[in-house]
Amino acid sequence: MPAGRFAPSPTGRLHAGSLLTATAAWLHARQRNHTFWLRIDDIDPLRDDPESKASFAPVLAAHGLCWDGDIQFQSRRTDLYRDALGRLQTFVCACSRKLIAERGGVHGQDCQSAPGTHATRLTPCWADCYTDGCRGDQAMTWLDAPVLWRRDNQPAYHLACAVDEIELGITSVIRGDDLLEATSIHRTLIQQLGTTPPEYAHLAVLRNPEGQKLSKQNMATPIDPAAWYANLCAALGHLIPGHTPEGATAEAILDNALHHFRLDPLK
Ligand SMILES: [Zn+2]
User: Fold this and answer.
1) d(C-alpha 188, C-alpha 87), whole Å
2) How far is the CA of 73 from the centre of ligand 1 (A)?
3) Rounded alpha-carbon distances, angstroms, from residue 240 to 186, 236, 251
4) In the chain, where are the structural domains located?
5) N or C: which end of the chain has fewer CB within 10 A?
6) How far is the CA of 146 from the centre of ligand 1 (A)?
7) Is the pLDDT of residue 226 over 60?
8) Does pLDDT of 146 surpass 80?
9) Is-contact 179 147, C-beta < 8 A?
10) 155-168 average pLDDT score
11) DSSP 3-state helix, strand, coil percentages of the chain (rounded to 5)?
12) What is the DSSP string of 144-201?
């Protein structure tokens, strides 16, 4: 069954940019009768905010953005990531950032024997070209040994994300273009694990009046679920220029928007 997903990290509350991405991914999946997963990318226990994590489901539900099946939590899937790591072309590395910088980014034969804890990195390779649903043709990219398993013995985001796209049968990934560069890594990992990568479409990230990207890290205003109507109208106005939302409930407004949404290049 083809599937889409919305996969927030619980490093802060959802903001207008999160809602935009969630709405686009939801509309894209529902238009095609695809499964729609809610996946919580809580891979980093040090940055995990329990209150934010608990807020995602009620905030999305208040906006009519319902998902299929159980909510998926990356923190419960570590064994899958460890298994996948063993099937990838990797090397163990104890290089510090300082040492890597001194060597111009090149890892030497003595990588493993450097003092300190070790990370596991992807063996450097080329990522092939692909066409993004919003950003168009993307060139081949040299992947310079991204970390897949961190030196604090946690799976890295890139590995967890790639494994989950496979395990959940994700066929379309719609997300903010702050993750565009990561996509070559994700596609390569998925290919090395023997699966065809999903289609990707990266939406332009919303910015605040000062021109900064809206993000949980720079304290973007959290979404108020009580203001669901205004929030949904703003998201749909951005995604479907000229569209007038119609309906008395969030579900009715989204149903109507299904007839008008299109994922156009450079949106
Ligand atoms: Zn190294």
Assistant:
1) 13
2) 31
3) 29, 6, 17
4) 3-87+158-257
5) N
6) 11
7) yes
8) yes
9) no
10) 97
11) 35, 20, 45
12) ---EEE-TTS-B-HHHHHHHHHHHTTB-EEEEEGGGHHHHHHHHHHHHHTT-PPPEEE
Task: Choose the weakest-confidence range: 90-94, 149-153, 230-234, 262-266.
Answer: 262-266
Give the model's pLDDT for residue 183. 98
Residue 142 CA to ligand 1 center (angstroms) comes to 17
Ligand 1 mean position, distance from CA 164 (Å): 27
> 85 alpha carbon to ligand 1 midpoint, in Å?
17
Q: In residues, how long is the chain?
A: 267
Residue type, 227: A
DSSP 19: H
What's the confidence (pLDDT) of residue 211?
A: 73
Indicate whether 167 pLDDT > 70. Answer: yes
Pick 3-87+158-257's CATH classification: 3.40.50.1820, 3.40.50.620, 3.40.1030.10, 2.60.40.1890. 3.40.50.620
Instruction: Provide the mean pLDDT of the chain.
Output: 92
What distance in angstroms lies between residue 157's CA and the mean position of ligand 1's atoms?
19
